[in-house]
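Q: For a teaching session next week I want to show students how multiple molecules come together into a single three-dimensional assembly. I've collected the sequence lines for a complex. Could you give me the predicted structure tokens for the whole thing so I can convert them for display?
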Amino acid sequence: MLDVSNLTVDLPTPAGTLHAVRGIDFTVKQGETFCIVGESGSGKSLTSLALMGLLPKGAARRADRLAFKEQDLLSLREHRMADLRGNRMAMIFQEPMTSLNPVHTVGGQLEEALLRHQPVSRKEARERAVHLLDRVGVPAPASRLRQFPHELSGGLRQRVMIAMALMCGPDLLIADEPTTALDVSIQAQILRLLRDLQDEFHMGLILVTHDLSVVARVADRVAVMYAGNFVETGPVHEIFRRPRHPYTQGLMNCIPAPGKTPPGGRLGAIAGIVPSLVGTITGCAFRNRCPFAFDDCAHGRIDLAHIGEKHHSRCLLPERQAAANAGRPELWQAEEAHVEALHQPWEKRDARPGEPVLTLDAVSQTFKVRRAMFQAKIPLHAVNEVNLDIREGEVLGLVGESGCGKSTLAKILLGLIEPTSGQVLFDGEPMHSHGRKFIARHIQPVFQDPYSALNPRKTVGFIIGQPLMVHGLAGRAEVERRVKELIDLVGLPQRVFNSLPNQLSGGQRQRVAIARALIMRPKVIICDEPTSALDVSVQSQILNLLLDLQREFSLTYLLISHNLAVVQHMAHRVAVMYLGRLVEVTNRANLFQDPRHPYTQALLDSALTPDPDAGVPDPKLGSLPPNPLDPPPGCAFHPRCPKAMEHCRTQMPRTIDDKAGRVECHLHDQTAPISIANKRARISAA
Amino acid sequence: MSATPQDDKNLPDFGAALSEPSAGQMLRRRVFGHTGLVIGGTILLIIALMALLAPLIAPHDPYAHNLANRLVPPIWHDWFYDDPRATWTHIFGTDHQGRDYLSRIIYGARISLLIGFSAAIISGVIGCTLGLVAGYYGGRVDMVVNFIITTRLAMPVILVALAVVALMGSSLTIVVLVLGFLLWDQFAVVMRTLAMQMREFDFVTSAQALGCSPRYIIMREILPNVLNALLVVMTIEMANAILLEAALSFLGLGVQPPLPSWGLMLSQAKDEIFFDPWMITIPGLALLMLVLAINLIGDGLRDVTSPEGRS
Amino acid sequence: MLRFLFRRLVMAAAVAVAVSLITFTLTNFASDPAIAMAGDTASAAEIQQIREREGFDRPLVVQYADWLSSAVVGDFGYSYRMRVPVSDLILSRIPVTMMLGGAALTFAIVLAIPMGVLAALRPNSWIDRTALGVAVLGQAMPTFWFALMMMVVFSVFLGWLPASGARSWQHFIMPAIALGYYATPAFMRLTRAGMLEVMRSDYIRTARAKGLRPHVVLFHHGLRNAIIPIVSLAAVQFGFMLGGSVVIETLFSMPGLGFLAWESISRADLPVIQAIVLVIAVFYVLLNLMADLANAYLDPRIRIG
Amino acid sequence: MGSLRRNVLLAATALVFSAGAAFADEDRPLRVAWDFEIDNLDQYYNTNREGIIFARHVWDALIYRNPDTFEYEPLLATDWEWADDTTIEMTLREGVTFHNGDSFSADDVVYTLNTVSDPDSGVLASRNVDWIESAEKLDDYRVRINLHEPFPAAFEYLSEAIPIYPGDYYREVGPEGMNENPVGTGPYQVESIDPQREYVLVRNEDYYEDSPKGIPAIRELHIRTITDKSTQMAELLSDGLDWVWRLPADQAERLERRPGFEVKFGEAMRIGYMGLDAAGRSGHEALQDVRVRKAIAHAIDRESIVENMVRGDARVIHAPCSPFQFGCDEDAAVKYDYDPDRARELLEEAGYGDGFEMTLYAFRDRRWTESILGYLADVGIDANMQFMQYFALRDLNHEGTTSAFHMDWGSYSIADASAVVSHFFKGSPDDFAQDEELQQWLEIADNSIDEEERLENYRNAIQRITEEVYWLPLHTFVISYAFTEDLDMQAYPDEIARYYTYSWKE
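A: Of course. Below is the structure for the complete assembly, covering every listed component.
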């Protein structure tokens, strides 16, 4: 149905022409799912835009052949192309939050897609919109038509986007990172929906993603893209069972996969960074990062070679050696564990395993927020009665959907906000009464976004050494010495000392952030999604580094993440948060093998592993996410809970604390639920 | 330049970032590649040199009066109208006191630049302080500052300036002070918005977590990051101050004669507009060039320093 | 909604009080109203008599409180020089200024928005450069100089338009252009920047991905979003124009608030100056409130949380 | 160009309406522009000149002073005499009606005079009326005016400075009503005062024939306020106006060379002067030294300023009053010629050989003040100009904070030295001399009815003022009038435009 041959996309930039896509070929058949997987900057998104004719101004698209249902798209005039777009070929994008026009109603935006292409009445269009909204799992579809996009949650918006793409019943659907911006629980639902719809509409589906797990679950055929080109293509099972290209192999070794990589073990990582796409690349684009590269890789043009049934790879390695390399993370160590590089060993803390270093005692945080300009402020219980111990030398994982209060909790622990009620004890003493400087000496943050975490106007040396200077802990020379030490420690070259952050890659920046957090030798590091903004190949490097450091210095980590695989790999204990409350706290083994809270179970169900046989799970969470401003009565999780009972709707569950851990759920409450009549009697007595 | 916001953010990551041309080189390349910036910069440089070297290049004493020799037409009246009074002695002619117009224009550059610059500095200090503090603290502080800003915006600038100057009397100092105290709104508004954005950056959060004082964070962490915008607003306000001084002078309430401010020369020449139009044209063009240059520089800086700008 | 309105109105009132307090203090420090009232030939004793009669010898705070309590009910006292109620004076002058401001705003918007949109659609094209040139020139020209030049050309040389006064719509053309041109660059820049940003946004890509026709994408999806900040700017600019009308009204002899202000300033007629500043301030605040309401109407994100 | 267009237009009009040309001419309104708005149309609550001119057209006073001969002539009063030193008796004109139809009689005079001379009335130009104690009606057309004390200049004030209002109407509407709808007996009556501040006056068709003002030739007057001189000029050049005045002299001269326009200069009673704070009210030390003041007098080349800047027929004056005024004896004045060397000597003597700083306050023509600054700078006096609006400067003067000021005074067109010399040197807030002997002379001169005694004392005063250089009198003013060439107009020295004497040329 779609036939692409030698597609290239060039972008003009101030530094020269950027060859973002460098001559790719592929076909997509009716009813087939074709996945393009690659890291950021690999050219995968531009490929999808090039197919739709939606390239940004100035970008040049060239191809030997670009045919959709035998129709040549290359020679098509723009208005004829527009006739196809949204009609025969449709597209959904990564950011559901920004991809819908904020000033028009959902209904209007749905209907116009159909009205534009087909001679239907407005009423028919509306009916079709309601039908499709219902089909994509939007509750109360008819009333949604009059709503505006911002009134819907991200998951609902992505469903609306899908419905919009389907309005004309297209033959080809291109989905560009359709689930990246969504929570794991929603991600699984959306992927499942896409699969189902593809069957129902018998469409071709091109799915563009960076997430190998997603690929494994939904793809029929896969293309791995690197530096503007496909390096490996083939059926999904072939690719995952017998990855042939070193890049594909490297990527797979980077992901922490339960069962494959031991918890806390070192992950594989791909050294180096992607080459500049300005100008031509001779030889293999991956060679400078490839541990198996040899002289021939630097020369000539390397073509996709047929290596199995429909399986192609762009690599000169002999077949046998390539096969032997797969699945061996030790081949992919990007760097040595850097701790030995220290000139002067950091005095090791005598670990007092199990002693709580931080204790949260019924900590609550309430904000007053205004939902809209005309409305009054209402309280938002961001953190609600949280009790938690963080023990010396442990990695405590904190998981939960976005907006559940994870980051607020981190801010409280960093001393940035004082809790509305309850208190935080540090080494047994109330922490917030000590003031920020005290807290800073012992607790330091590593943030998610390495671009925002470093002041772009300061040199790396200044940024790392700043804590010492602010606290007046060392003289200029001493600061410089310690900074250089830490630059070594986190595996950066010494020359970055005088660099500005914008001269560093994302992974390098995150290392700078870690060095800065460490320079005051704190006890606790709060890692707030430390790798979620990074590519997988870099993520594994940072995770390795964090683990090395933790072991070497007996650091205590609070690791906040929505990525369950990362938490499972890193954490000793895990706390699960839902709408400001900790619903389950237990050790890793218990949590991942025997989750007790239905929410934990659902989270685990929706987490995807790169297993091509597993299919897309259905966590059965329903499509309506919770609204923190309007928490449901009783157990806050009950509207989404598949096991909800009658009294879950009215009564808050108790906290059950036993050997297996702590959980807040009626299911595990051994004492009989208090009847409503009983409760009333008690209230009136009081 | 790029396809999606996501790609946009990651673009600098392409290739070996460390071996790319340095930020300074890139900036230099963009600055000199920007036509408006080059033109504006050249004009401003000429005017600034004129102001700086006035005693060396002015052919006459700008204050030397000679009533018997007043309103001599400029040299081109010799070429086009055969006016025998026009000579090379006074290239731009003389004004109503018989003073050399060219010398006054040259010295006038000093006054106009001085007014624009000092007023922009004063208002910059006021506006930045208010804006940064409001944006950084938010909440009640922001409410108070916002109130101050709204109050200032609600006061009609020209009217209040006129009233103050008319009732108190005017001098160079008073004009500069009045303009300085009135023109800080842009600074405050822009700095407030930027500080609010900056506050959300993690590097500010981590400075807070370090226990840095708000003063330290505002001055050392935020300010260096908003200097670009500050510079742009500065040019706008400089241009504004110069134009406003001209407007005050037009109504007879700007700087005082015999100081040769271009605004003042313009206003004194306006009565001659029908019979000696050159008198208003010359300072008018000078003022136009100066403000144009400043605006071009402001626009250019905005373009050069913002990634979305024209390249 | 009511709560919002109430909050904003309280804010507006507070701003008005602050503005009037500043003006009152400034003008009273700068000038002695008794002397101003007494006229050319008054003796020191007469001045003292006036001071006592009018209560100018009381503390400034008391005088201000007194003035404010009357001003709240629309009584701004009597003009020192004209001896008529200030409120009558101002009411009779508002129409001309409003018409001038409205015309100037219309001119600015009609010129700026199409140019801004075209410039944004074709960045760095000749249209963009022309628009930029028009904008930069507009900001660089002293308003009065531009006005005078227009007067010379269109009134004296060509005789097309009347040079001064406010008797017919023709009288408003040159003043409106002179006043509006200065505001044009702001509108044009905002339109251009807004359109550039909007046209780069994800939802425009979505709209194009739906295969919508270019004009639908441009107007229904693009301009509709880019117009929102322009409403706020229009309110702000209109407020500025009311204040900035001094020079233009004086030059074109238009009997509006600005002209009245100028005459009152030149005669130290404090009650009129205070009242005009207050009226303009209140206008400004109310315009902003209206702009916010308009924004809420245009932007559902603000309206519905 | 404007004039060309005008000519074409006029030619066309002439062709079409040639038959009724005379009629059309009479109907053609005279369009004039004034620099200022009239503060208040009730003449007693107004001090600006535009108001005075307006009043002369709408109201009549009791006596008319002929601007050419300076003789008193009957206006609303036909006969008047001193009954004694403090009593005046007047006979009134019969058969005069006000614009609203009320007939004029002694009641109107009595009511007007009694109302405005009451100190509680708060009239602004109180000097004009505060010498009146009361007025009483003798019969329908005879009145008696009682004075507080002898006041020789009484007839000067009674002529034109005191317009007579319709008593019943004024009683009913008060000053506010008079401001909104002025009613008088004058040659023009108010047709409309529109909110756009255009005054439209039409000829009073019932005006009494033997009025010395005469029956106006032009039926309609359109008066607009245009503050900006260049706008006035633009209107004149683009056929939007027929008459403007007070153009800068050199511009007026060049306008005259254009076809279609005519320019007249008229010397006015207004004089320019430089006031110096000899009494030290402002605390300026140097100026309290008479040698410094004399140095200033010698430093300024008044001849050159008059010749090059003021132009017209303006004259340098040495006495602090207008040559048109009674009692202004130029010969009594000490004359200082332009002698910068002498000025430097004097400064040296006074101990200011290195010069000193001062602020010169000014309001009228910045260029003239600039010239003075230039000359002062030549002898080493570093003077800053403080240019202000007249009213703000006047207030500063009254507060006594001004050390030196360059101003001018029109004496409200009263041709008597008391209107200037006594105004400034009799201890008023404007008095920066505070010279008691001088004040005594002026007291006598003002109140004596013996002309010789008055002249004698004014001479003494003039000599003292110039000897001490309390003031440096500069020059007389020349008022320029620019108008279309088909207008026939006369200029008068009292700086009052008399449109009722204008006519269109045939």
